[in-house]
Amino acid sequence: MKSPLLYLLEVLFCSGLLLAFYRLLLVRKVSFRACRRYLVAAVFLSAVIPALDIPLYPARTVVYPLPLIGAPPAENLVQATGEVPAAGPAVTSGWRRISRTVAVGGYLTAVFLSLGFLAVRMVGIRRLRRRSHLTDCGAYTLAEHPQIATPFSFLRTVFLGGGYEGRRRMIVLCHEASHVRHRHSAERIAVELVRSLFWFNPFVWIAGRWLREVHEWEADRDVLDAGYDLTEYRTVIFHQLFGYNPDIACGLNHSLTKKRFAMMTQFKKRRFAVLRLGAALPVVALMLLLCSFTVRPAEAPVSSGSADRHVSTIHIGSGGKITFNGRPVTAGELERFIAAEREKLSEADRAKMVVVIQADKDTPVDDLADAMEASRRANALRLQFRTDASDPGVDRMLPPDLSRIPADGKVKVIVPRVGGFEGTYKIEERNLFLVHIDGSGAVMAGQAFREKSVSPEELPALIRAFILNADDDPAMSEKQVKEFDLPGGGVMNCPVSEGIVLLDTAPGASFGRYLEVQRLIAQSFGSIRNDVSQRQFGADYASLAEPERQVVARAVPLKLTEPRLYK
């Protein structure tokens, strides 16, 4: 979903482009009816096209040589630590919330005032009609009242004051009847409604003024086509110049008189009018292409990795009973047993060691904390969570123990707003996406201080949109262009997402829900990896060869942190 600011910018772009086309190719060159319909359509299209979200799904057999979202190899699958931003960011976010509230409040106030003024004008016309003497003239109703200084029409009613007799009366009624016949008032009301919603858009105001001009030009042309004398008609118009009528209505004094007089004698419908109107289709297609179409990749499962991994299993039973590779152990012994298993492996195989943590779905997540901490301190950072042997599980990468960060600094530990550790860096608030599971299993998700209750089905799309930030929203995750090596040679300059997911669980949250949410988080990153592999290699991520899989995995690292790991 695009940001409100981007939508407003696209509205301005579309409306400006459509009005520029009208001024260059249509005005005074095509029929008045075509001009009217184009202006009304332009006002609506400029608001509708940016709001559309039309998906485009790339073909699986085509390679799209587009930039990847990459990251340096040293940061692949690096886990972040987690503390929620402290008081300073909260104050900043509070001011942002206040600014947004003020902006939204100001916008809605202007909308309600504009709609209120429109309603007041329409009610005033209705009251004037009730006080007037009404005459049914077939195509319209004539409302006569002495207080009407200048003739005007609104919907199917023509309003006329005193002192109009003979040919002057006939000319005036012919002009206003033209407004009624062409339904000019309905077009004016439609544009007024759009202008009330987009009062900040100067192009909507310009379109409304140009539409009023076309209405008067068309009515003038109908009067002259009815056989009335040009000089006599101009004299009648001059008599009305200093009168007043509601600006929502159509009247004789509702445009620049000099332009009207010029149009009475100079307008000629030029050749190729249909081609001129047809030229608007590429303009609309361009706006759709730039503002409405978005690429949607197919979802892909996340692979669990190589089959030759060295696996050790921790089982958490009822009552907190723990077994390691089938042997009963205590929580305090876990680190020693895991480290011993790791020491049996060669240096190369240690990187492939996976610790499987298995528990029932209703097991409290807090019961898993000791097992995760023991594995982290033993420097066995690859985990897999599952509920039973048939469960495919969810792979995780733990952050290293801060007290055991290598001296060479190759491992970066991400610490939100917390300093004091060598090799760390801070997370900007915009780069943090919070996911909270409460004791009942409900999920709250969103950027810092903007969390909302979400369903499990909504979570992957929200995380995906946050990580990709396709619209370059300054309030969402940052992207930095970095150089990225491809297998077999070649280098790409790629935008790298700085987005990180912070997963927090309340006391009492179940392991089943915890596992489900992690699977959804992995699904969101997996869909991005599948998108990257399709575009770069023309195949799903799961079907890539290992070197290519490593490229994609480094390009889209699953950055996930849990604050409870560092309590």
> Which strand-content bin applies to the residues?
15-25%
- What's the structural domain tally? 3
Q: Can you tell me the residue ranges where pLDDT is under 50 for at least 5 consecutive residues?
A: 58-93, 252-256, 297-307, 408-425
The secondary structure category is alpha/beta
Strand order of the largest sheet: 10-9-8-11-12-13
List the helices and strands and how they pair.
Blueprint: H1 4-26, H2 32-48, E1 54-56, H3 87-131, E2 133-136, E3 141-144, E4 152-154, E5 157-160, H4 166-181, H5 184-197, H6 202-225, H7 230-240, E6 250-251, H8 257-266, H9 273-278, H10 280-291, E7 293-295, E8 310-316, E9 322-324, E10 327-329, H11 331-343, H12 347-350, E11 353-359, H13 369-377, E12 382-386, E13 394-397, E14 413-414, E15 424-425, E16 432-437, E17 443-447, E18 452-454, H14 459-468, E19 479-485, E20 491-497, E21 500-505, H15 511-537, H16 546-555, E22 560-561
Parallel strand pairs: 1-7, 3-5, 8-11, 11-12, 14-15, 16-21, 21-22
Antiparallel strand pairs: 2-3, 4-5, 4-6, 8-9, 9-10, 12-13, 16-17, 17-18, 19-20
Helix pairs in contact: 1-2, 1-6, 1-10, 2-5, 2-6, 3-5, 4-6, 5-6, 11-13, 14-15, 15-16
